[in-house]
Amino acid sequence: MIVQRIVGHVNSNHVTKLMALARVAVLKDTLEINVTKNGSCVLGCKPGYDYRNSTNCIVECDPGYYDDCTKECGPCTQQPCNKTDGSCTGCCAEGYTGDKCDLTCLKGYYGKNCSEACSQNCKSEYCDPQNGTCVLGCNPGYDYSNSTNCSIECEPGFYDDCTTECGQCEVQPCNKTDGYCTGGCAKGYTGDKCDQDCLNGYYGKNCSEACSQNCKNETCDPQNGTCVLGCNPGYDYSNSTNCSIECEPGFYDDCTTECGQCEVQPCNKTDGYCTSGCAKGYTGDKCDQDCLNGYYGKNCSEACSQNCKNETCDPQNGTCVLGCNPGYDYSNSTNCSIECEPGFYDDCTTECGQCEVQPCNKTDGYCTSGCAKGYTGDKCDQDCLNGYYGKNCSEACSQNCKNETCDPQNGTCVLGCNPGYDYSNSTNCSIECEPGFYDDCTTECGQCEAQPCNKTDGYCTGGCAKGYTGDKCDQDCLNGYYGNNCSKECSQNCKNETCDPQNGTCVLGCNPGYDYSNSTNCSIAKHVHRIVRTNLVTPRMGLACLDVILDMIIKTAQTAQLNANPDFTIIVQRGVGNVKCNHVTKLMAIARVAVQKDTLEIHVTKNANLDFTMTVQRSVGNVKCNHVTKLMAIARVAVQKDTLEINVTKPLLTVTEIKKLLTPVQLLEV
């Protein structure tokens, strides 16, 4: 490029390489240069335009930037700043000042245009230029934690940064700035700030008083002089906390420790030493040690008796406190100088066992000569075991002794003999029972068919004699039975079915109808006789009613004649259109049959209980009465003309079979 000045003469030339379009305007006598090639501004843009984004300088700076668009605006309150020179048209933001608001507040100022002064209580009077916060904290005496601009003083009792407590001033509070106690210190403290404890050995106001020399380590409470570690030996803290009182006689050290057993009291109050020596039974510098085991007396110079148990004795008088060694008598000699009397051993209260030759060993009780009969063991103090007897229990009891137990000395069976052996004739149970006896030989055998019975249990191995039963044949036959083992039944014709248990003879006689004189077992019946005759058929009695009454009479007659002890009454009455059946029990007479007019009345009695059923039915109308019975005989009924005849006999037939025999009934039906 060649630049020449138009007005006047320009002789100098200027050559450059241009990278953009440039336009230079020179007013008046200024030089205006227009250079074009591709339109770039070769000398850059005027302030406020962005050459980086436009080489021909047609793009303004972004908001917040000015001059060549690389400089940021200051913190103006009204953005953006002037794009040409960066000036703020409004005020600066808090903490800034200057035309461009690019200067921070000077130290000690803050706020808009730095117009406000920092608090004087701010450390170094320095605060945050925007909000006035004391960024370095507060001056001493002001509380930053409660006021960041340090406008609040410390609370009473605190100073400096308000977290440090005042010392122990006599008059509170301390100076809030430096913590000094202007009124002096409380007792037990010293220093400008009264924050130092008294030195060891001193106490009181300003630590001006010395602790008692009797305090342990000369250490006392810094406020009141109390000996906090206690007293030196020989002084009583419990009665004087400043250790001005000595121990009472008989005590030493801290005045709670008793003196030892000095021969002459008291001991030294400081160390407890017995300067005059020890009493009997004690030793050591302080006389607080018992004599060693085996010694007693003054200074423990005497030995205990060797007969003392563990050689231990009373340390003062030598008494054997644990007793004597075995073989010595403490009750007669407390120092164990006397032996046991004969027949006793150990502590002389234990008797010897059953030695064959007395006495036993006084120490352990052993029988050196052996045991008397019935005893065993080293000391012969154990009875023989069950089943043995004699010297040293060497002999066995008889096996015939009950439980094989016998007298441990002589072998006598003390519980008696086993069954089958006779103790009365042999106390060692060597003799069996005589024939006919068993068990302990005093119990007789039962009625065995072949004697004798078993001597042990009495059983009859060959069975029982006639009339007896049971394993031992010692039970009579039950009523109604007889013969070997009571296996046969008495005749049913025997009265009460009772017969001789051996031969079956009816001992009470026969039931009615049987002849005892011709047959002692009542097997022959007597001649049949008529029980009752009466007219049964009347004009008003039908055949059906007669048949019912006939059944009733047959059953009644059978029961009355043959059942054991039936007691009852049956009354049958016939009326016009009605039949009634009544039953009354327990009558004590024989059977009687009576017919009066149209009424049939039957009375039957014996002397036993009865169970029966009777059925009565009438062809005209309905009346039903049931009666159940066990019949012991057969009945035969014969009707001759107008007479009903009832005969009772054996063997047993049913009522149906009886009715089949009634030919007269068939005639009546015709």
Helix proportion: under 10%
The number of helical segments is: 3
Outline: elongated
Question: Strand count, sense and closure of the main sheet?
Answer: 4 strands, antiparallel
Structural class: mainly beta
Mean pLDDT: 76
Rg, alpha carbons: 74 Å
Give the termini distance in whole angstroms.
186 Å
Strand order, biggest sheet? 34-33-36-35
- pLDDT < 50 stretches: 1-36, 528-546, 556-655, 657-670
How many beta-strand elements? 38
Portion in beta strands = 15-25%
Give a verbal description of the structure.
The protein has 670 residues and is mainly β. Among the domains are: 44 residues, no CATH class; 46 residues, no CATH class; 127 residues, no CATH class. It has 3 helices and 38 strands. The chain has a 4-stranded antiparallel sheet with strand order 34-33-36-35, with helices on one face. A two-stranded antiparallel sheet has the order 1-2. Strands 3-4 form a two-stranded antiparallel sheet. A hairpin with a 4-residue loop joins strand 15 and strand 16. The protein is elongated and about 180 Å long. The protein starts with 21 loop residues before the first strand and ends with a helix.
Entry keywords:
single chain; 670 residues; mainly beta; four-stranded antiparallel β-sheet; two-stranded antiparallel ribbon; 3 helices; 38 strands; 16% strand; elongated
Q: Mind sketching the topology for me?
A:
Blueprint (H helix, E strand, L loop, with lengths): L21 E2 L10 E2 L29 E2 L4 E2 L23 E2 L5 E2 L4 E2 L5 E2 L40 E2 L4 E2 L23 E2 L5 E2 L4 E2 L5 E2 L40 E2 L4 E2 L23 E2 L5 E2 L4 E2 L5 E2 L40 E2 L4 E2 L23 E2 L5 E2 L4 E2 L5 E2 L40 E2 L4 E2 L23 E2 L5 E2 L4 E2 L5 E2 L53 H20 L4 E8 L4 E7 L6 E5 L2 E7 L28 E7 L2 E7 L5 H6 L2 H7 L1
Antiparallel strand pairs: 1-2, 3-4, 5-6, 7-8, 9-10, 11-12, 13-14, 15-16, 17-18, 19-20, 21-22, 23-24, 25-26, 27-28, 29-30, 31-32, 33-34, 33-36, 35-36, 37-38
